[in-house]
Task: inverse folding
């Protein structure tokens, strides 16, 4: 069906904005008149024009009477820009095909209503699943104001994330690692436990061309982070935030503040950082998405506190063994199988030589 083809084009265009639009959505638009594509555009960067505006601006001929395909319902509010629905009415667009409704309470159906009231034919929900998946971050964040959390793990076929000596670089292959760097670019934040910082001294940046580094968040209830850690000394690359509790070492706290590091104090949750509270605080700071990159203790707490939305696991074709070799999720563990953390909509594909599993957590 042609409608579907154009909507797929709009979805592909929208994806070009990945990593640049947060906390706003990824949106693509295609304009078709008399069987020809006469305009296309996408939301390129936060604060810049919406997709529909860019598509109309790209058209070299009159768009009146045309059909506009857009992955998200056109907006109806005055934000950084005037309502796109008004622009479509002004430009005499005849038909609008929408991927999915905008869950933003300021819009939420009002955009479509406005178009229909002005005599524009509207078809809504074409490739809806794809359109919603594209904006899974936005859809959660705009309603809850809490970040969408992706838990990522790379392990051997026998579930180990390191050898007994602690060696972990690299278990997964090059393609998988590159995919992770793309994800670091796409998400607003990256979060690890302090043990990971102590052990690996990671950079937690997106090492691919033309990328945007995520804000680095370290969960560290007692402020054990070494002052010489890379993520504290390379603040020019990306911001680092430390989440701690009142168990924090006072002197360390003063030193970190002197270094210009932002420290968030949360209430304690069994002596640790309260992750639910942390998510609310980070959300209020505009962080719409977080890549959780371990370690095993933080992973378990994150699952227990139900902050994880999606899991991504790379399984490498290697066996490591060793009773004391670390696995991806440790902590206290659950005691009864009926309490296992359940994953829905699990899919599997190969990424290079690794098996890549992706699924969603029950909410
Ligand atoms: C975008 N880009 O292409 C579309 C959006 O912050 P504002 O004023 O630009 O408005 C943001 C809201 O506009 C956003 O939350 C969503 O509801 C709607 N649509 N936003 O940034 C776009 N179509
Ligand atoms: Zn708009």
Result:
């Amino acid at each position: 069906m042609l409608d579907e083809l154009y909507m797929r084009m709009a979805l592909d265009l929208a994806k070009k904005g990945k990593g640049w639009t947060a906390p706003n959505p990824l949106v693509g638009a295609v304009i078709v008149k008399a069987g020809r594509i006469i305009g296309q555009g996408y939301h390129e960067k936060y604060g810049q024009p919406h997709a529909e505006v860019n598509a109309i601006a790209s058209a070299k001929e009159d768009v009146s009477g045309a059909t506009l395909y857009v992955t998200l319902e056109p907006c109806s509010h005055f934000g950084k820009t005037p309502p796109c629905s008004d622009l479509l009415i002004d430009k005499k667009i005849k038909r609008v095909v929408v991927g999915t409704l905008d869950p933003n309470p300021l819009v939420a159906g009002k955009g479509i209503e406005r178009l229909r009231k002005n005599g524009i034919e509207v078809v809504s929900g074409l490739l809806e699943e794809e359109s919603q998946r594209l904006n899974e971050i936005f859809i959660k964040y705009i309603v809850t104001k809490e970040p969408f959390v992706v838990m990522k793990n790379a392990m051997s076929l026998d579930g180990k994330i390191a050898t007994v000596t602690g060696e972990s670089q690299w278990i997964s292959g090059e393609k998988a690692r590159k995919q992770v760097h793309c994800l670091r670019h796409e998400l607003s934040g990256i979060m690890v436990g302090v043990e990971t910082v102590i052990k690996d001294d990671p950079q937690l940046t997106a090492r691919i061309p033309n990328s945007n580094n995520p804000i680095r968040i370290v969960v560290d209830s007692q402020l054990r982070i070494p002052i010489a850690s890379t993520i504290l000394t390379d603040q020019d690359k990306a911001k680092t935030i430390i989440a701690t509790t009142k168990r924090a070492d006072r002197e360390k706290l003063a030193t970190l503040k002197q270094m210009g590091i932002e420290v968030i104090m949360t209430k304690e949750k069994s002596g640790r950082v309260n992750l639910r509270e942390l998510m609310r605080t980070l959300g209020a700071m505009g962080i719409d998405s977080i890549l959780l990159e371990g370690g095993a203790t933080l992973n378990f707490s994150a699952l227990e506190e139900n902050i994880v939305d999606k899991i991504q696991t790379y399984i490498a074709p290697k066996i490591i063994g060793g009773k004391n070799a670390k696995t991806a999720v440790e902590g206290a563990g659950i005691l009864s199988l009926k309490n296992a953390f359940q994953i829905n909509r699990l899919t599997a594909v190969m990424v290079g030589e690794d098996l890549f599993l992706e699924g969603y957590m029950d909410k």
Notes: The domain at 146-361 is CATH 3.40.430.10 (Dihydrofolate Reductase, subunit A). The chain has a mean pLDDT of 96. Residues 24-25, 27, 43, 50-51, 72, 75, 79-81, 102, 104, 107, 142 surround AOF (ligand 1) (CB under 6 Å). The radius of gyration is 23 Å.
